[in-house]
Amino acid sequence: MASPLSKKPKLNAPASEQSPVRHANGDRLASQQARDEACEEEQGLMALVEHRGKEVVTIKQKLAHYQSMLEEAEKRLSESKSKLSLFKSRNKYQNQSNSNSNLKSRSQPVVPVNASKANPHHPSSSSSGQSNSADAMSEKRKQEKQPKRKIEEKEHQDLIPSVKRSSKPIILEFGNTIIIPSDHKRKMRCLELCPTNDNLFVTSALDGLIKFWQVNAKMPSASLLSTTDCLSPKHRRWPEDIAWHPDGDTIVSVYSGDAGDCQISILDLNKSNENQKKVSYLEAKPHNKGLINSVTFTPWEDNICFLTGGSDHSVILWREEEGDGNFSYKHKSVHRDMHSSAVMGLSALKHKKIVLSVGADKRIIGFDLLAGRSDFRHQIEYKCMSVLPNPCDFNLYLVQSGAPGQQLGLYDLRLRRTEIHSFGWKQVSSDSQSALINQSWSPDGWHLSSGTTDPKIHIFDIRYQGRGPSQSVQAHQKRVFKAMWHQSLPVLSSISSDLNIGLHKVY
Questions:
Q1: Which residue would you say has higher pLDDT here, 433 or 314?
Q2: Are strands 408-412 and 419-423 parallel, antiparallel or unpaired?
Q3: Beta strand pairing status for 264-268 and 363-368?
Q4: What are phi and psi of 364, to 5 degrees?
């Protein structure tokens, strides 16, 4: 009989040895709960993303709507400003026309009329009255000291914030285009408007002749007033560039620094008598060699100066001196070694004594005359051919370069080396970029006109975001060198290698 003490009591198994089924059920419940929580969080995030996505779309739609409203408002504002500018210009022109017959001062040039050379497109007046007036003016000039010029004060306008802001350009309306034979025997080089009489402009060509034209804006048409031989005395070279004196009474021409020939000539419009020598040549020859590519007068009222830049890398300042009735200029070097190649374009800023120069060395240099040192230097990728300040925004200037399709670049003087917009045209007839192609600003500063190697005049609206022309005017048979806006007349004048002058009515 077995002893009851031999039976071992039945004990509960430890937790680690309990049934795995119970553990598996607990893990599944926890995992399911975690998945449910993750799913709920994901769904919440998806709903939040959808809500915020709709919010972004709504805000973008509102932004696009208000952006469109802003562009339309800016367009209406620009159109109103343009109409106001045109209205003021027309009033100014009418006032000038009414007072021109009574004005006899140095500010009104006396252009001699060659009756034998009169253009049949417009009858020219008799030269006897002009001659007597010129003699009287010349005598008066000798007897009394002439006052300093008075530059029309133009208020600074802040155009730069509107540059490249509009998705649509403002299209100008061009009306009648009249093509007139230039009477030049060789290709034209220069076209310049008289600064004191918007009815007058001059052309120069490889034949060495400078021709004076009078505009009739109503038709439009132009009549040839006179022709002057301005070939250099030694080697009979034609003017490389010309500039009209701010007083409107002289034309400055530049030639070459080679072979000891004359570098600067002065054509005096007040000398209409056959016994008076119209063209005088300055004895000074500061340019060492090569062509003198550019000449321009400074816009400063306190003194009368002009600048010349040449292939010898130098920029020269010529200051007018008071004389006995004859023109006298003293020169000094602005800089000679800041460019490593030919200086192609020059200009001076209106509100600062800073000279801008651009060259074939791809450099843009701003030289501070008062400080006697460079204010800034900028190197770009292509050679530079011209520089042109905006007439309304004194901080804005244009540089023409050899960049294909983006020949024109706008710069803000305050940003130094930053290009704020670039645009241009695709050339069809040739890939080469010609330094003889030049630009002109419209009086309101919003539009640019440019000649091309193709027979077109390209018009650019600087507010337009696009890189191409806002419109083009077909006018000539061969390449267009330049198209200039008259300041108070609704006319755009152009010259071309087809030996014709174009007059384009602007509305």
A1: 314
A2: antiparallel
A3: unpaired
A4: -115, 120
Please answer whether residues 99 and 110 qualify as being in contact, where contact means their C-beta atoms are separated by less than 8 angstroms.
Answer: no
pLDDT at 109 over 70: no
The residue type of 97 is: S
Structure tokens at 412: 């803000």
Please give the average per-residue pLDDT across 92-99, as a whole number: 52
pLDDT at 77: 80
CB 108 within 8 A of CB 241: no
* Cis peptide, bond prior to residue 220, ω within 30 of zero: yes
Residue 94 pLDDT grade (very low, low, confident, very high; cuts 50, 70, 90)? low
Q: Is 106's pLDDT higher than 50?
A: no
Burial (CB < 10 A; 0-12, 13-18, 19+), residue 227, is: middle
Question: Per the structure block, which two tokens stand in for 162?
Answer: 């509107």
> CA angle, 154 as apex, 242 and 194 as ends, to 5°?
25
pLDDT at 121 over 90: no
> CA–CA distance from 82 to each of 77, 79, 177, 283, 507 (Å)?
9, 5, 22, 46, 11
- The residue with tokens 């003087």 is 413
Mean pLDDT value across residues 26-40 = 79
The Cα–Cα gap between 136 and 226 comes to: 20
Q: Which of 290, 306, 375 is nearest to 341 (CA)?
A: 290
- In the structure encoding, which two tokens stand for residue 386, read together? 């011209």
Distance CA 307, CA 310 (A): 10
**DSSP collapsed to 3 states, 104-139:** CCCCCCCCCCCHHHCCCCCCCCCHHHHHHHHHHHHH
Q: For the chain, what's the residue count? A: 507
Question: Locate tokens 């080089």: which residue?
Answer: 189
Tokens 């021409």 found at: 253
- Measured distance CA(245)–CA(149) in Å, rounded: 10
Give the DSSP H or E segment for 26: helix 20-100
Q: Are 206 and 105 in contact (CB under 8 A)?
A: no
Global pTM?
0.74
For residue 23, the model assigns a pLDDT of: 62
C-alpha 146/C-alpha 105 separation (Å) is: 10
Tell me which residue of 278, 338, 276 sits closest to 313, measured CA to CA.
Answer: 338
pLDDT tens-digit map of 57-84: 888 888 887 877 787 787 778 777 766 7
Closest CA relative to residue 461, chosen from 447, 475, 441: 447
